[in-house]
Amino acid sequence: FEGELSSVYFFASLCVVKHVHRYCFKVSFMNNQKQQKPTLTGQRFKTRKRDEKERFDPTQFQESIVQGLNQTGTDLEAVAKFLDASGAKLDYRRYAETLFDILVAGGMLAPGGTLSDDMTRTEFCLFTAQEDLETMQAYAQVFNKLIRRYKYLEKGFEEEIKKLLLFLKGFTESERNKLAMLTGILLANGNISASILSSLFNENLVKEGVSAAFAVKLFKSWINEKDINSVAASLRKVGMDNRLMELFPANKRSCEHFSKYFTDAGLKELSDFARNQQSIGARKELQKELQEQMSRGDPQKEIIAFTREEMKKANLSEQAMIGIIWTSVMSSVEWNKKEELVTEQAIKHLKQYSPLLKAFTSQGLSELSLLLKIQEYCYDNIHFMKAFQKIVVLLYKADVLSEEAILKWYTEAHLAKGKSVFLEQMKKFVEWLKNAEEGEE
Prior knowledge:
The protein has 441 residues and is mostly helical. Among the domains are: 58-241; 316-438, Serine Threonine Protein Phosphatase 5, Tetratricopeptide repeat (Alpha Horseshoe), CATH 1.25.40.180. It is 67% helix and 0% strand. The longest helix has 34 residues, at 2-35.
């Protein structure tokens, strides 16, 4: 019996071991399943064509443009049609600089303005064309049509012109002349901004006289295409109207030198414009200085002496000077925003500076100029609308304004600005002046 019992125990223990082994294997397998992580198998995914970055290679583009220009030759109508059609097949956006280099110089330009030796070239380009205004106008039309058709080229074209101006020393005199005429025509027709002229202020170009010579040709073609008013408006728009003197080296940067250089070159209109701009600049500086002197509370005797000296230096008339003084006086104080208080403040302030105003109103025209400035100021600054008459009366009592000047202003010389309001304000005072005059007679 004992033998049989031990066999049963033995068999039972075997079964237990077997089940335990199976359980442990199962747990181990499950743990391994949880811990497994995905691994890269080395499989390569195909990149979509649109995501591939194309290598910059202008060679094929250049060959296509050069071939087309060689076929069209000097027929600029055919050139314009070829460029229009090619934009649908060639990447103008990517190779804009290459395109403009070829159209201007016949091939890609290396830094400095020389043609790249290892590239295909064409003999049909701006630089090999006839050096006359008519041909340059025809080329301007080619660029105009191209940019109107492909609007995205506009910015790239301006950048190209800026670059070409910096490369002027690398071009021949004839090439510079053609580029100057073309640029003038493009500026006149609004195809490019006058901001491109900043390239002409490059120190090396200025030093060697290249900038000034180029500017003569450029402004001549610009004025020929439009007029000096077009030049003035475009220069003012980009803040270039006061920078024309920078076309010359520092030691020649004077109004006299500028005037003689451009007048001798047949551009008196430009000389007069520059002289006028310098005068405006000098007036602004003088006004600013006077304003600062008043704000500091400098003695009026010193201010008068300084103003007389500056007036002589700038060759300003008394009529122009009184306008500057009035603006400086009225800008040197912080005005009250309340209408009922600003009149009192203005009378007090102007009473203080009446000796300064009197020193520069020795002529009838100067008095009239001052009256017009006062009218304009009171109209433009609404808080002063009711102060006009009191200001005029104060200056009359201070011997700044004469009876004759006031009567002339009232009867015929006033401005249209606020006319009815100011004439009504002055009515009683003018009547008093006339009665006083009759009484004296």
